[in-house]
Amino acid sequence: MSRIAYVNGRFLPHSHAEVHVEDRGYQFADGVYEVVLVQNGVMVDEMPHLDRLDRSLDELRIAHPMSRGALRSVMRELVRLNRIRNGLVYMQVTRGVAKRDHPFPKNAKPSIVLTAKRISMPSQETVENGVKVITIRDIRWERCDIKSVSLLPNILGKQEARENGAFEAWQVDADGNVTEGTSSNAWIVTQDGELVTRPATNDILNGITRLSILKLAERQGLKYVERAFSVDEAKKAREAFASSATAFVTPVTQIDDVVIGNGKAGTLSRGLRDSYMEYAAGEGATA
């Protein structure tokens, strides 16, 4: 079955999904995006994702292309047309098509594109063994809280991770503290059992999965704190993991050349992953 995309009011074969060459997303990366997980045919944390999309649009002063109700209808139809059971819905909004000039165009109409695809769940072996991350210098701009389509530093970091046999690259600020991964949030568990993740300032993207994990941790009475942590502290941690809409909770068992813990997924990481998967199948599917 050929994939179906949505482009500016029309459902089209994926191979015919196109935007104009002078769309500002192509010319200037003048746009934002959002990704929603689909589990068992239902979207997870849909409303928080749409809240973040609205915030990103407002921060860049891009007009909203349609009402939330209409957007939700398009998302559901796209899932249906593509027969997605477990997968992702990707949506991108740009400032639209206009003559190439840096200032905002006066009468541009925002462009909106949505696609959907199936994904495979990580194997149990991958979860148990965990993954490797490397550390790299954070070279991004100062508004990482906006989910912008301008991702070149993230791409370079992810490629460096792949070339070093790693799942992810954790970016490090000028003070030697981890900000986040190129496409995920970073977490550690200290030797005292405290769960630590970077606070949601303009230095990181406030992950929707991140917020759900914090909510689950609080409900379970886990000790957690939102603060900066250094690369050195991370390498001495009892456990570490990454989180995102696609990584869920992925245990990290190696940072650069340092093995974390006993080299296997830790108890707290595995427990949070199980809790999140249960959340995604239940409460999160109605959020």
Automatic annotation (TrEMBL):
Molecular functions per Gene Ontology: branched-chain-amino-acid transaminase activity; D-alanine-2-oxoglutarate aminotransferase activity; pyridoxal phosphate binding
Q: What class of enzyme is it?
A: transferase
Which cofactor is recorded for it? pyridoxal 5'-phosphate
Q: Pfam families this protein is in?
A: Aminotran_4 (PF01063)
Quote the cellular component terms of the Gene Ontology held in the record: cytosol
List its EC numbers: 2.6.1.21, 2.6.1.42
* Annotated keywords: Amino-acid biosynthesis, Branched-chain amino acid biosynthesis, Pyridoxal phosphate
Any single GO BP term: branched-chain amino acid biosynthetic process
Pathway per its UniProt entry is: Amino-acid biosynthesis; L-valine biosynthesis; L-valine from pyruvate: step 4/4; Amino-acid biosynthesis; L-leucine biosynthesis; L-leucine from 3-methyl-2-oxobutanoate: step 4/4; Amino-acid biosynthesis; L-isoleucine biosynthesis; L-isoleucine from 2-oxobutanoate: step 4/4
Reaction equations catalysed: L-valine + 2-oxoglutarate = 3-methyl-2-oxobutanoate + L-glutamate; D-alanine + 2-oxoglutarate = D-glutamate + pyruvate; L-isoleucine + 2-oxoglutarate = (S)-3-methyl-2-oxopentanoate + L-glutamate; L-leucine + 2-oxoglutarate = 4-methyl-2-oxopentanoate + L-glutamate
Q: InterPro entries annotated for this entry? A: Aminotrans_IV (IPR001544), Aminotransferase-like (IPR036038), BCAT-like_C (IPR043132), BCAT-like_N (IPR043131), Class-IV_PLP-Dep_Aminotrnsfr (IPR050571), D_amino_transT (IPR005784)
Oligomer and partners? Homodimer.
Describe the function of this protein: Acts on leucine, isoleucine and valine.
Q: Its family?
A: Belongs to the class-IV pyridoxal-phosphate-dependent aminotransferase family.
Q: What is this protein called?
A: D-alanine aminotransferase
Q: Which organism is it from?
A: Thalassobaculum litoreum DSM 18839
